[in-house]
Amino acid sequence: AQSVTQPDIHITVSEGASLELRCNYSYGATPYLFWYVQSPGQGLQLLLKYFSGDTLVQGIKGFEAEFKRSQSSFNLRKPSVHWSDAAEYFCAVGRTGTASKLTFGTGTRLQVTL
Amino acid sequence: EAGVTQFPSHSVIEKGQTVTLRCDPISGHDNLYWYRRVMGKEIKFLLHFVKESKQDESGMPNNRFLAERTGGTYSTLKVQPAELEDSGVYFCASSQPGDGPEKLFFGSGTQLSVL
Q: Which helix (H) or strand (E) holds B18?
């Protein structure tokens, strides 16, 4: 069965600092990988996705993620965090054929200090 | 264009009561999904409608949960009777036929608290 692990429940960074949120997955084939963000009172918004090809993918709001098959990881990064990035971030994996049936991690809550 | 709409945004009920959550997908989206996040845990798939038909309901936790999508438009998720462990955030999502997950649109969720 597929699974997603986000080991960090809560992370605090200073505005302007770099950010890396960790995601590890378990899946038997090449996965479809996603990062979503949920800001307070908002729905889940897709930040970026990986299906195939270049393992470094760019997303919205200046985020990027790197797929590393050898480490079963898909970590999310941002070089300089803004206060508006404070939110909860979810990593998810899907599979072909049922591509919209996603398996999510437990989420990482990001706090940004000024 | 309106997004996926869920209401109520919050619901507080007592154990044993009934609650009905509603989801209005984006117009024209045949696919409709329900997900749930219990406090501190992952967001879990509950079920998937294609139009009015249940395509996959493998994530429904038990028979206290009933999902419907009459006419293939909006969907309701009824919990009867509600238990403490049903507390959490219930998300709805929709997409067009054939669209992949990158075109899955989520609502803002319903926060359900069972006391």
A: none
B57 and B66 in contact (C-beta within 8 Å)? no
Cβ-nearest to A44 among B31, B95, B106: B106
Radius of gyration of chain A (CA): 13
User: Minimal Cα–Cα distance from A105 to chain B, Å?
Assistant: 5
Q: Which H or E run contains B85?
A: none
Quote the CA–CA distance of A19 and A75 in Å, as a whole number: 10
Contact A64, A35 (CB under 8 A): no
Contacts of A46 in chain B (CB under 8 A): 102, 104
Task: Write the DSSP assignment of B53-82 as a string of letters.
Answer: EEEE-TT--STTEEEE-GGGS-EEEEESS-
Q: Which tokens hold the place of B24?
A: 């209005």
Contact A106 B100 (CB under 8 A): no
Scanning every residue of chain B, which has its alpha carbon at the shortest distance from the alpha carbon of A9? B40
Q: How far is A93 from A101, CA to CA, in rounded Å? A: 9
pLDDT digit of tens for each residue in chain B (115 aa)? 679 999 999 999 999 999 999 999 999 999 999 999 998 889 999 999 999 999 999 999 999 999 999 888 999 999 999 999 999 999 999 998 888 777 889 999 999 999 9
